[in-house]
Amino acid sequence: MPTILGQNQYGKAENRVVKITRDGATHHIKDLNVSVALSGDMDEVHYSGSNANVLPTDTTKNTVFAFAKEYGIESAEQFGIHLARHFVTSQEPIHQARIRIEEYSWERIETSDANSKFIGADEVKHSFVRKGQETRLTQITYDGEKWEVVSGLKDLVVMNSTNSEFWGYVKDKYTTLQEAYDRILATQVSSRWRFNWTDDEQKMPNWEKSYEQTRKHMLQAFAETYSLSLQQTLYQMGARIINNRSEIDEVRFSLPNKHHFLVDLEPFGLKNDNEVYFAADRPYGLIEATILRDGCEARIPVDMTNL
Amino acid sequence: MPTILGQNQYGKAENRVVKITRDGATHHIKDLNVSVALSGDMDEVHYSGSNANVLPTDTTKNTVFAFAKEYGIESAEQFGIHLARHFVTSQEPIHQARIRIEEYSWERIETSDANSKFIGADEVKHSFVRKGQETRLTQITYDGEKWEVVSGLKDLVVMNSTNSEFWGYVKDKYTTLQEAYDRILATQVSSRWRFNWTDDEQKMPNWEKSYEQTRKHMLQAFAETYSLSLQQTLYQMGARIINNRSEIDEVRFSLPNKHHFLVDLEPFGLKNDNEVYFAADRPYGLIEATILRDGCEARIPVDMTNL
Amino acid sequence: MPTILGQNQYGKAENRVVKITRDGATHHIKDLNVSVALSGDMDEVHYSGSNANVLPTDTTKNTVFAFAKEYGIESAEQFGIHLARHFVTSQEPIHQARIRIEEYSWERIETSDANSKFIGADEVKHSFVRKGQETRLTQITYDGEKWEVVSGLKDLVVMNSTNSEFWGYVKDKYTTLQEAYDRILATQVSSRWRFNWTDDEQKMPNWEKSYEQTRKHMLQAFAETYSLSLQQTLYQMGARIINNRSEIDEVRFSLPNKHHFLVDLEPFGLKNDNEVYFAADRPYGLIEATILRDGCEARIPVDMTNL
Amino acid sequence: MPTILGQNQYGKAENRVVKITRDGATHHIKDLNVSVALSGDMDEVHYSGSNANVLPTDTTKNTVFAFAKEYGIESAEQFGIHLARHFVTSQEPIHQARIRIEEYSWERIETSDANSKFIGADEVKHSFVRKGQETRLTQITYDGEKWEVVSGLKDLVVMNSTNSEFWGYVKDKYTTLQEAYDRILATQVSSRWRFNWTDDEQKMPNWEKSYEQTRKHMLQAFAETYSLSLQQTLYQMGARIINNRSEIDEVRFSLPNKHHFLVDLEPFGLKNDNEVYFAADRPYGLIEATILRDGCEARIPVDMTNL
């Protein structure tokens, strides 16, 4: 046979599970989008269509919902670990499981103020508004021995309205760009970070606290860096995380440079003193890099944008 | 000629203007998406292609950016009023202007905590993260005499995890739905409200405060209503606004019922005590209605979803 | 009570129904997205939450799927007519039904050529590829007496690479645009057209043929018009339809001017002789108008883009 | 310093270039979305913000537009090869260039039929309608010595309305799926294929013909395979390409199983004889695999969906 099968994986993608936990009248939400990808001894289903080794994708979906009840959802990472372990240890033909999770965050609707007309209004504790900022991400991979946990976020839009320059670059025959000494720097952060927890014997990180702190360090580094290039800012964001979070060894960023062009108002007799900008869509600069703890191996795939 | 021209309008849509205001080291952002639609004496351009009465859409774009400098952006509503007045009063063939604005809100990145490594870190006052929740909307219409201001929001996602029932409905031969006595009620609010300010002689509302309070009343009514149907909740949301905001005479809602289906876990020997839900995409219920101050006329078009 | 209920409607939106018809080994597809909106005697559900007059949206969904079996799907229009008639005539509190349908078209995968390796390959007649061009639309409204049928399309992207000019326009202090004597004219057509069939006594149009012919006339008018403005082209597209299709009395267009800017290559020592263009996203001109058969009333809402 | 820089790249993404070629009155279009990613000796810009080695992303944008004039756009692949060679050979610090291109196809608007009212209408040869089916893709990577060309497509939606079964699978405690002996098989094809052209000394493939033939073989294999699992169909699609196109050594697919669920019409007294289906959105099965020419190395990254 002149063709052979290479890497392959399958499972149910985008299982939208919402878990409500009731602590008396106070409710808590976890809102996840869970995707399962399994691989192992799957040659026959590709070559002949025999499903003898195939746990249906429908079953992987059922498992996601059942586990939300059986184990609860303490964190996206912990939930993914339960799922990955189950698939690899319960099905002989499955040698590896990869669980990807998106998490959407919610905050409470405040109802206790004086304007509330609700009769006998105590604070309502079962009402939520979706936060709608970044989407939190995690990916759990397990092969029966080692764990790889890569968490991250996407769609976090940030802007510095000053403290950004860009000059001193290469100029070739196609270069027309003017140097800038005070520009807006804005990006939509997509980031992934890899934990050095790989083994059931190690102490597991506090996933919730780790996320909150990593996000904070990233934002503060963005705000506090006086930027000579988006590459420099990117590096500072990654280094700040590595330096502050010992559980993380590697960070990858994909940062579109969301251009805000100063509008030329001179034709109208007006001076634009870094006040009025046109927010452009396409094209955009795209800056991507990995920052590593010294001595550690890079394992996060470099491609977060795809062909 | 057997065909005639009916209503028509034209202009530049989606002008993305960002205005930075510097108050010393403290910066402020306004981030708008402005669409201009003009109408008037425009038969000839349709019939013969004569542009003699046509102010180019490119000019309307330039005007948006120039006005951000000339007038600043105090609020989306005030900015739209400046623009609409300009087009109608400066161009004889233009009899009516409609300015639509989307506004994206930003909050400051906090940098003052103890973890911040910035040397000599005072709080940074030029760094922002996009809030990413609802999009604020306004539409200003001016015909040279009267103003119509319709503001609103879209994409505000809310959920009550209890205090919602649905029963006692009509059952015909196609009805299979089971009655529900404790369900999740979730929706993605799209709302528009019309102000009773119509005349330059009237005192203008405080647009920023009005928006903030209207949004708050809407959210609180959603949270505090014990719901027997999404229609009932919708009505309470509108009535709460009309009763608390004297500047508003009419509210329209388009509320998709974002179904969260309780997952049947019995096949797995598990009991689902209102804990685990499947968040469905399509189809969805769609509930739409207008709430009016008694004696006022309905003027907001009923269709917010389009053919 | 100081607030009252205005116009309201409800139903299940975006029911995705696919109907396969088997004519021996030859299969046929209809692929629709059906949205139901009902209105009538619905005050109580808004005021008190009583669902006594409410046919559940879930039932309207079931009806869509059941009718695909009971009546088949001859055309989107005919299918919508069956549904609208059913809801209005079978439920006393429902006084009006509006059915909106999107239709996705498919074409057959060709398998009969010499390269096909299929053993004993006759042409396969059950394999399809989605056409992926415009989405066909229709909206059926019925109040128990009169019908209104508005059909249309969206997302049909067209371009003329010459025979378009733009000059002779108004110039004010904000005008910087240069006149153009040979430009690209491109747009993404969104159009709706209203039929003069309103009564069961009238002969019903051939909906499938009408759509095909209306689309063809629209495209040909776009191609054949030497354009001095997009408004002129729009008018010709509408007039061509009215003049050729006696079943249609009114056409509405919403045409974004998808700007293709000639790139300035002079800084690189190159001459751009109407060859290389930058296809821009935002902002864009937006040209909207209604064309009517003389003597007919305009009934299609002017707003196809929404606040 | 405890942190180090890993893999990094930068450039201007999504340059939307449209090239018109005039052959007398007959015009031709190429419509591309070009993304440039450069890497090399870029440590300093990350560590210190020095841009001394950085060719601005704005310059890479200018180069795309200038090359459309200088070299024309014979095919997306050939255009990418010109660009990649330029960046690597003209800038010493740049060691590798990766050019990604999306191509949108257009077809002519037909105007020659009898219904055309155009006075003296010859066929119009400058009017186009966007085809709107799949998006064609290519990625060119060059390091100064070797080329890697990976082409592909996305968003090609296909369906077989019969000749698909699914049974004989593993059943565990979470399995509830019923076996199916005649189901709809539908997917939205995302595929990439790698050419064995790697060297300027080799004869270059005919990129346009290769795309057309590869697409045809893929579609025919989908149509002609009697399917016992989507994995089996996927393998047949890849094998058909490898067996028929000697210029291609590797194919990767990411195939969502777009579920069409047979609707249960029994509650309404109706029998659903494989006629009426509900087209579901989420969750969906996701089947991914690589097919290789025997003896060849797999080089296409396995992840086409991303974390």
Automatic annotation (TrEMBL), chains A, B, C, D:
Q: Which Pfam families match?
A: Uricase
Keywords in UniProt for this one? Oxidoreductase, Purine metabolism
Q: So what EC number does this one have? A: 1.7.3.3
Question: What sections of the protein cross the membrane?
Answer: none
> Which pathway does it serve?
Purine metabolism; urate degradation; (S)-allantoin from urate: step 1/3
GO MF annotation list:
urate oxidase activity
Report the InterPro entries cross-referenced here. Answer: Uricase
Q: What class of enzyme is it?
A: oxidoreductase
- Reactions performed catalytically: urate + O2 + H2O = 5-hydroxyisourate + H2O2
Note whether Nucleotide-binding occurs among the keywords. Answer: no
What highest taxon heads this organism's lineage? Bacteria
List the NCBIfam families: urate_oxi
Its annotated function is as follows:
Catalyzes the oxidation of uric acid to 5-hydroxyisourate, which is further processed to form (S)-allantoin.
Q: Which family does it belong to?
A: Belongs to the uricase family.
Q: What is this protein called?
A: Uricase
Organism listed in the record: Streptomyces cinerochromogenes
